[in-house]
Amino acid sequence: MMGNHFSLILLPTLKCNAECDYCFENKTNDCLSLEKLAVVIHKVLDHMEQNAIQSLTIHWQGGEVMTLPPTWFERAHELMQEAAQAWGKTINHCIQSNLIGYSPKWNKVLGEMFGNSVGSSLDFPNLHRRVRGCNVPDYNILWAQKVREAREAGIEVQVISIPNRKTLKIGAERFYHYFVEELQITDFQVNTPFPGGAANEAKNTLSLETKLLCQFFNELADIWMSRGYPEGVRIGPFDVLLDYFSNGTACLPCIWQKNCATEFVCIDARGYVSQCDCWVTSYPEYWFGNILECHSFSDLLRNSVVRQRFQARPGRLMQRESCIDCDYLALCHGGCPIRAYTVSSNLMAKDPYCQLYQALFRHMEKWAAHLSGLRSIQ
Amino acid sequence: MNFVTYNVPAALAETYRGRKLVVRFHDSAELQQVLLALHPDDLLYLQLLLPTTTSADLPQWGEGVPIDIVMSSPEAEFPQLYRFAELLERHPVRVSIPVVPGFSKAVKLAVALNLTVKLEVDQPKPALVEEMMQVLEYYLHHSTVTQPIDFFHNTLLAFYHKDPVTLWMIQEEDPVYFRYVTEQGEETVARRLAGTALQGECGVDEKFSQEIRAEDQECCHCEFREHCAGYFKWPRQEYSCGGVKTLFRTLQHAAGELRQDLGMYLRADLEQRP
Description:
- The complex is a heterodimer of chains A (378) and B (274).
- Chain A is an alpha/beta fold.
- Chain A has one domain: TIM Barrel.
- Chain A contains 15 helices and 10 strands.
- In chain A, strands 3-2-1-8-9-10 form a 6-stranded mixed beta sheet. Chain A has a 4-stranded parallel beta sheet with strand order 4-5-6-7.
- In chain A, helix 6 crosses helix 8 (210-228), helix 8 packs parallel to helix 15 and helix 9 (238-247) crosses helix 15 (354-377).
- Chain B has one domain (5-259).
- In chain B, 39% of the residues lie in helices and 15% in strands.
- Chain B is built from 11 helices and 9 strands.
- Chain B has helices at 28-34, 74-77, 81-85, 103-112, 126-141, 152-161, 167-170, 204-215, 217-220, 225-228, 242-272; strands at 5-9, 20-25, 43-49, 67-70, 93-98, 116-120, 149-150, 178-181, 187-188.
- Chain B has a 9-stranded mixed beta sheet.
- Chain A binds chain B through residues 2-4, 51-52, 245, 248-249, 258-259, 262, 311, 314-316, 318-319, 324, 327-331, 333, 365, 376-377, and chain B through 60, 78-83, 85-86, 88-90, 105, 108-109, 111-114, 142-146, 265, 268.
């Protein structure tokens, strides 16, 4: 956000073709028109100009982005390019999709706008993801088929996966085998679940026993280090932690940024601005404002009392929680605000996965030391 | 050529125009008024004095000019470092932290935010030496520390390279190279020594160490005199250095270990070459 780069999570639609029980977004039928998109991008670029920011990365998410037609994105891309040129700025694009709506009609825009790369999501075993009107088991079959088609068209697919109770039961070996050896996914990230949005029965089951979760992550890391890492497979967050402990720098995920409130914001299809996709779709009391209604996006961000609370969060955690005494303070800074809020109803609490993170940091630190030892004797 | 850098209050920056400067700002209004009149080439760095200045006050100015955040009450002020860390996108940023009880929290957070640290130390009591020792262990051995913490860092390098660099130089208080100008315009050695009169352009060895050698037996026999040069004997020469010597000893030992480890690595590397 500050400095020479601005990151924006943009939700051009809040519609979705899936009905996943554990989704943290409250879906609506709202879509961003191209006319309103032009207004949004003008105000974002004006904000960048006022703050001497040169480049912008837009993370396109939904709802489900592929419920919009590919022609909408083609026109959006043209609009963005024209605006970027007029303001002398650079805009890069990333896309996150469930790929259920993928067809070869998407290939042109995926190539030209997104560099033939798509982020997607899949769980194993799948307990919660379902296509609208279909059963849970059908989802993974349909998804795998779409991924095959996309790959045949030269599109790279990265995957985010959320473990559940059954994942912990089948264990890391089976999980790794499914993604890497069965689906041949070579770039994926394992995230942690949280009960965001309106409460339901499925969300009540998301909480996982910390000891089992630590064991799962550490075993998965060991499998990756012994089989995947030498073959160039990347699994997040193990890969970035290994980079960090080996080289001192790494591109850490948003949950471990020093302050996510200074790194990015999210705008939804109605123009509402908040910290990220969960906040903007499910917690109206945490909106910073509406970009379509404001005169200046810079003023909106600067004057938002809600955003000031997000900005103050890491500093408050250092005073109120045990984070300042943590060996891994440089890596975490108290973790993710949405995970804290959805579990404890308190924005100023530390991330409930603190113990998992510490176990993981310690584990990957040992692996980095081990690798370093191997290199020095080779 | 004049090599002296003057640490001046913003109100006197105009008076010292054309010399190498450290300009210190006490409050936001001063910052807005004076900053745009300064030339980045004249500046060694800017000092923002807490608690009155905030990072939000700094205009889009002088990209690349180093900034030194000077804390006054680190245990209370350390959460503010999150806001100052945003300056890293456009400036090298250092935090000067006074060695007072609880200072180690500020050091830990500064380092975690990739800010370099300078400890502002005078004559620490045993409890503070203990806290400094914990910070030194953290600096030497903690895997997430990637930034220098001075005076530890440059003293370690001095031991490692066997360079006779003194604390006066590391702490930017050697009067041959640095002068501190008080709010009243009086030139002195350093903030901690405000009121100490300067006599010509004498160096530490000529002025301070002579007096110490003459008057203090502890310095005469001190194994670290080459690196300390009586730094801890000012302003009160009766200060007992037993505690701070443990810091020097630890740094000396670490430098020896580092030299030994690198030597072993280089020998192994050479032996493996065809």
